[in-house]
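Table S2 (continued). Query chain:
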Amino acid sequence: MNLYLMAHQVALLEQVIHNLHFAMRHASPCTVNTLRKYRDELDDVLLKIMESKVVSNVNLRYYIQRSESCMRECASTSTSNNTYAIPKPPASSSYTLPDVFKVNVIFYIDSTESMREDLSENGAVSEAVQSLVRQIFLEMEMVRNTGLGLIDCLASLVWFGDATDGDPLNSYNIALIKENISLIPQALAMPVLKSGGNTLPESGLLAINDTFTSLVEDGYATRVIYVTDSPSKTIEQGASASVVKSLFVNNSAKVFGLFPTHAQPDIRGMFSHYDNIQCLDYSLDSWASKMLRD
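Corresponding output:
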């Protein structure tokens, strides 16, 4: 089997398996059994493909050598035997980063029943968010080691559920309040599971509307991470997408979301960056550098 064809077929199979898995969360018991049967059959097909013999006509050594040659040419200071000196900037144009860049990251994560597998130790959402936090640590270390300054990073964590078919008086829980971000991995590993989730949508916007202002820290740039596998309620106790967006705008917050991007109501306008939780290949790592800069 050719490597390109294999990669294409594996991507298609994994997407279908992921969609079946997603559909099982809200299906009836009878339908779940049928979907599980189809999923298991596709898992067997995927296993056979992964165990098959694969060949590739791509010469990796050639591409590495070409890359090295290109880098040498780009870094060269001479062209056609004429040497060019990089001009020194005038003293008045010098620029230095602040000694300490302060950032406050607020996580809002759906922990209803449909999210429990994804929030388990090896769950897709858990691994993606943990990987993002590790990338934030790497970015902070890189800034420190290169002498560009220091990053002081606080974090808060709010688990939310559904105030309608769950506990209306306990539809969200603030697990961490403006602590050092080093405490986030441990808090993520112990999700506060919320009731609800059997019916759509969930109370994410309500949780943000009720808690956001109290979690903002003066002097810190505000970043928000919002994660759910369900649509949001159009309006709930005064909380709507437009109201929440105004909160973000008024606090100059950069907002990042992992949610069903084609669900209604359309909340994409609230976010600076977002990804579709229903897509199998999402990665949140690229958000780290965007979060730690003005």
